[in-house]
Amino acid sequence: MANAVRDLFEDNGIPAMIRSFQIPAYDGLAKIMRSVWGEVLVEEENLVRAKELLQGFLATDAGDVGKQE
After folding, report:
1. What is the largest CA-CA distance in the chain?
2. How confident is the model at residue 32 (pLDDT cuts 50, 70, 90)?
3. Considering the domain boundaries, does residue 67 fall inside one?
4. SS3 of the chain
5. Would you say residue 65 lies in a domain?
6. Residue, of 62 and 13, whose pLDDT is higher
7. Which residues, other chains included, contact 39 with Cβ-Cβ below 8 Å and sequence gap of 6+?
8. Is residue 20, in this structure, part of any structural domain at all?
9. How far apart are CA 2 and CA 53, in angstroms?
10. Residue 16 gets which letter from DSSP?
11. Is position 69 within any domain?
């Protein structure tokens, strides 16, 4: 899902990057310490617009994804 969110932001002109919390050498230990895999980062000046896009993305009915009008 992080890749989809990053792509959503970038498709809307918001530069974004993914920061993973995983540490390969520790084989999942980071997941025990944190309940999330990572985060999608945007610059502070784009934060409000990114939140709006994310809310719309999360509110989208999965049944509508991929349908053409």
Report:
1. 47
2. low
3. no
4. CHHHHHHHHHHCCCCEEEEECCCHHHCCHHHHHCCCCEEEEECHHHHHHHHHHHHHHHHCCHHHCCCCC
5. no
6. 13
7. 2, 18, 19, 21
8. yes
9. 14
10. E
11. no
Does 40 score more than 80 pLDDT? yes
Residue type, 47: L
The tens digit of pLDDT for each residue in 44-59 reads 999 999 999 999 999 9
Q: Mean pLDDT across the chain, nearest whole number? A: 81
pLDDT for 63 equals 47
3-state secondary structure of 49: helix
- C-alpha closest to that of 42 among 61, 16, 60: 16
The range of the structural domain enclosing residue 31 comes to 2-59
Q: Could you tell me the two tokens for 53?
A: 């896009």
Neighbours of 61 (CB within 10 A): 7
